[in-house]
Design brief:
Structural class: alpha+beta
Mean pLDDT: 76
GO cellular component, one term: mitochondrial inner membrane
Largest sheet: 5 strands, mixed
CATH topology of the domain at 139-270: Ctag/Cox11 (Pfam 04442)
Number of strands: 9
Low-confidence stretches: 50-56
Region (Disordered): 65-85
Number of helices: 3
CATH superfamily of the domain at 139-270: Ctag/Cox11
Distance between the termini: 153 Å
CATH class of the domain at 139-270: Mainly Beta
Function: Exerts its effect at some terminal stage of cytochrome c oxidase synthesis, probably by being involved in the insertion of the copper B into subunit I.
Order of helices and strands: HHHEEEEEEEEE
Pfam families: CtaG_Cox11
CATH architecture of the domain at 139-270: Sandwich
Shape: elongated
GO molecular function: copper ion binding
């Protein structure tokens, strides 16, 4: 039937079978295996089962970044090296804590000592330099014969005496002579009167100052009752002397030309030791 049909009809009727073109292999033919290659394959097949189950363990520290802090142990089974590093860190931290405590304690002790030493140090500096209107009472400024010679033709200076008491002090304290006039180098003696009108004994202590403050360096006191405890019994009254002089250099200092009056002021306080 297929022979009677035309070419196209025969193709549609499936009379022609599809024939695949032959495949041409481009690979070269296999080479024969040499005895050396056959021996190598035999050794490889023998070793492969052994090496296949081998586990290579690499420490994790090789892959961790470097850190300055000591790692925290995650289990109770720590290595000796890790335990040593942890102990070193704890010792270093304890040392730093002790050092900080020592420094803090030293600063506290220093400030406490400075608070107790402030008053005597201030008094020493003032008596040496005349700071803040404090008269000079250092040994180098007292009882010098060359300094206690009155300056001839020098202008006289008015010396005023003032007094006061603190609110807690129940004394009456006043100068006997309100003022005197002297020349530089001339010694003078003045008195203050203190009276205790209460019915109990009272211990007092006094401070003093000079106004104007720039004249304090020339105000030399030979004897006074300042910075010394004075005890007055109930109803007692005493006179307290002040022996002093003005340094002769006062007359030659151009900064003192405008100073005509010097005021010596005393203030009495109740002693804390009573």
């Amino acid at each position: 039937m297929c022979m009677m049909l035309g070419r196209r009809a025969a193709a549609k009727a499936g009379c022609f079978a599809r024939v695949s073109p032959p495949r041409i292999s481009l690979q070269p033919p296999p080479r024969p295996i040499t005895p050396a290659a056959r021996a190598f394959l035999t050794i490889a097949q023998t070793v492969r089962p052994v090496t296949k189950n081998v586990a290579f363990r690499i420490p994790l520290s090789q892959f961790r970044p470097a850190s300055t802090s000591t790692p925290t142990p995650t289990s109770s089974h720590s290595t000796p090296h890790f335990s040593s590093a942890q102990q070193h860190y704890q010792r270093h931290r304890a040392h730093n804590t002790r050092t900080t405590m020592y420094y803090t304690a030293s600063v506290i002790v220093l400030f406490i000592g400075a608070s107790y030493a402030a008053v005597p140090l201030y008094k020493l500096i003032c008596t040496q330099t005349g700071l803040d209107g404090t008269p000079l009472t250092a040994p180098g400024h007292k009882f010098e014969p060359a300094s206690m010679i009155p300056v001839e033709n020098a202008q006289k200076i008015r010396i005023r005496f003032a007094s006061s008491v603190s609110d807690a002090m129940r004394w009456s304290f006043v100068p006997v002579t309100p003022e005197i006039h002297i020349v530089p180098g001339e010694t003078a003696l003045a008195f203050y009167t203190a009276h205790n009108p209460s019915k109990e004994d009272i211990v007092g202590i006094s401070t003093y100052s000079v106004v104007p403050a720039k004249a304090a360096q020339y105000f030399n006191k030979i004897q006074c009752f300042c910075f010394e405890e004075q005890k007055l019994e109930a109803g007692e009254e005493v006179d307290m002397p002040v022996f002093f002089y003005i340094d002769p250099e006062f007359a030659y200092d151009p900064w003192m030309k405008d100073v005509k009056t010097i005021t010596l002021h005393y203030t009495f306080f109740k002693s804390k030791n009573q």
